[in-house]
């Protein structure tokens, strides 16, 4: 009876672990986060103390019929999932914007959470990590910041206005 109970507990634990939305490939960036919505697009911009990252930005196209306006600035973290770029093997450094899966989470230090999720994708945070949650249907998520190939090159693609402008 004890062995059977242990086997059921192990199976249940494995099932719960596999249903979690986060994976080992997810990346988290922390710092001062700004979220601003324009006409159909939302910019998620951040500044971090990590000199290797500096500034970062994601441009998110929302479903226009369900546009949710967001205006936030404060400390928090952004979690996203890089998308593989066939036929490149993982780990290859490119000089250009990073390809991203259509799922991104912003968790503010005060507990407010914004989940930008594309159809047929799961949010990147667990229920225990959520405060007041706002889920936003995302059509496309792009990480637009990147640095020149030369070490220490300037960050590019971090203009909030360029992200939320019509056609941006």
Q: Kindly report how far apart the N and C termini lie.
A: 62 Å
Low-confidence stretches: 1-20
Number of helices: 2
Which overall shape is indicated by the principal axes computed on the Cα atoms?
A: globular
Rg calculated over all Cα atoms: 18 Å
Structural class of the secondary elements?
Answer: mainly beta
Count of individual beta strands: 9
Strand content: 35-45%
User: Could you say how many structural domains there are in total?
Assistant: 1
Q: Main attributes?
A:
mainly beta; disordered N terminus; seven-stranded mixed barrel; 14% helix; single chain
Brief sketch in words of this structure:
This protein has 168 residues and is mainly beta. The chain is 14% helix and 40% strand. The protein has one domain.
Overview of this protein structure:
This protein has one domain (21-164). The strands form two sheets. The chain has a seven-stranded mixed beta barrel with strand order 1-2-3-7-6-5-4. 14% of the residues lie in helices and 40% in strands. With 168 residues, it is mainly β. It is built from two helices and nine strands. The model is unreliable at 1-20 (pLDDT under 50). Strand 5 (100-108) and strand 6 form a beta hairpin. The protein starts with a helix and ends with a helix. The chain has helices at residues 2-19, 160-164, and strands spanning 27-37, 41-47, 55-62, 71-82, 100-108, 113-117, 133-143, 146-147, 155-156.
């Amino acid at each position: 009876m004890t062995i059977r109970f242990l086997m059921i507990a192990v199976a249940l634990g494995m099932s719960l672990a596999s249903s979690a939305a986060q994976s080992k490939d997810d990346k988290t960036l922390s710092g001062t986060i700004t979220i601003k919505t324009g006409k159909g697009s939302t910019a998620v911009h951040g500044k971090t103390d990590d000199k290797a990252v500096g500034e970062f930005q994601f441009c998110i196209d929302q479903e226009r019929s369900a546009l949710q306006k967001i205006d936030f600035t404060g400390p928090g973290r952004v979690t996203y999932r890089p998308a593989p770029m066939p036929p490149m093997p993982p780990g290859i450094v490119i000089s250009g914007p990073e390809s991203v899966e259509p799922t991104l989470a912003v968790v503010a230090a005060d507990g407010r959470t914004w989940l930008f999720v594309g159809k047929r994708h799961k949010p990147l945070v667990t229920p225990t990590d959520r405060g007041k949650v706002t889920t936003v249907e995302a059509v496309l998520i792009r990480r637009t910041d990147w640095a020149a190939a030369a070490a220490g090159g300037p960050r590019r693609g971090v203009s909030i206005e360029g992200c939320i402008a019509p056609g941006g």
